[in-house]
Design goal:
By secondary structure, the chain is an alpha+beta fold. It contains eight helices and four strands; from the N terminus they run E-H-H-E-H-H-E-H-H-E-H-H. The termini are close together. The relative contact order is 0.24.
Length: about 150
């Protein structure tokens, strides 16, 4: 099974959307193997958003991400990164399709309520950035046999 990192951003926290977003992942059948609330620091944001560091809006992004604590989650499932990206929708919430998290709950490019890993490789890096090994848990949902066909569990 594949894993993906999710960050419920301050805009989701401030709007009281945590439960609704988490429920969507649970209803889909994704396993939450780690979850915690943290306050992001400059150092952590510099590392996580290093690819945006040269943009003029970088300090505004960091300020936005430090406004409140965030919820970080490690999700697990078959083709988890792609499944989550489809559920979340594109970064620009105005172009996100209805039915996606951003399409239903957001209208902003920057205040787009959620981060999701964009590749299996980045998911591994991001999960290691936000979780210690003893903060991730392996278990099985009781309804796993009706979420996946037996040949999909390998």
């Amino acid at each position: 099974m594949q894993q993906s990192l999710i960050i419920l951003k301050p805009s989701a926290i401030e709007r009281g959307l945590m439960g609704e977003i988490i429920t969507r992942f649970e209803k889909k059948g994704l396993l939450i193997t780690g979850m915690k609330m943290i306050q992001l620091t400059d150092n952590l944001l510099n590392e996580h958003y290093a690819h945006l560091a040269t943009l003029p809006i970088f300090s505004a992004i960091k300020d936005s991400m430090k406004r409140t604590p965030v919820v970080v989650m490690c999700l697990e499932g078959k083709e988890c990164v792609d499944v989550v990206r489809l559920m979340v929708g594109p970064t620009n919430s105005r172009t996100a399709a209805p039915g996606t998290i951003r399409g239903d709950l957001s209208v902003s490019m920057r205040e787009n309520i959620i981060h999701a890993s964009d590749s299996d490789e980045n998911a591994a890096i991001e999960i290691n950035r936000f979780f210690a090994p003893d903060e991730l848990f392996m278990y099985q949902l009781i309804n796993t046999p009706v979420i996946y066909a037996p040949n999909e569990l390998t």
